[in-house]
Amino acid sequence: QVPLVESGGGLVQAGGSLKLSCAASGSIFSDNNMGWYRQAPGKQRELVAGITTTSSTNYADSVKGRFTISRDNAKNTVYLQMNSLKPEDTAVYYCASGRSMRFTTAPRGIEYWGKGTLVTVSS
Fold first, then answer.
1. Fewer CB within 10 Å: N-end or C-end of the chain?
2. What CA–CA distance (Å, rounded) separates 67 from 46?
3. 2 pLDDT exceeds 80?
4. What is the pLDDT of residue 90?
5. 9, exposed or middle or buried, with CB in 10 Å at 0-12, 13-18, 19+?
6. Angle CA(5)–CA(53)–CA(116) in degrees, nearest 5?
7. In three state form, how does the secondary structure of 36-95 look?
8. Calpha distance 111→120 (Å, rounded)
9. Is residue 29 helix, strand or coil?
């Protein structure tokens, strides 16, 4: 069973919106912090947003006020609502999970990664 499965990526014009979803197996969702990272071509993978088991959230400065992370514990799913998208948001977005996951720019404490979903924002 794949532990994390992302969906919702695609092509959108600048200023548009997308909502990413990440379905997790129950055993790794309820006790773990969850997060979204992204990696653009030629760049390091970086934190976009994270959410704890008690739904405290953390955002990269570049997405504050535009992106919202949330989790539905009944569905074992974490979401990333992305509004006012910019071309510089173009990247592969990865779902991540870890009991000791830290919301630092570079990944720390990640136990599970999804395979990623591509988001392309055209200008």
1. N
2. 15
3. no
4. 98
5. middle
6. 20
7. EEEECCCCCCEEEEEECCCCCEEECHHHCCCEEEEEECCCCEEEEEECCCCHHHCEEEEE
8. 27
9. helix
> Given pLDDT bands bounded at 50, 70 and 90, which one contains residue 15?
very high
For residue 59 the two structure tokens come to: 């955002």
Structure tokens given for 49? 């947003």
67 vs 102, which has greater pLDDT?
67
- What digits encode the pLDDT tens for the residues 25-78? 877 788 899 999 999 999 999 999 999 999 999 999 999 999 999 999 999 999
User: What distance in Å separates the CA atoms of residue 43 and residue 86, rounded to the nearest whole number?
Assistant: 17
Instruction: Please report the pLDDT score of residue 49 as a whole number.
Output: 98
Q: How far apart are CA 31 and CA 48, in angstroms?
A: 21
What's the N-to-C CA distance of the chain in angstroms? 38
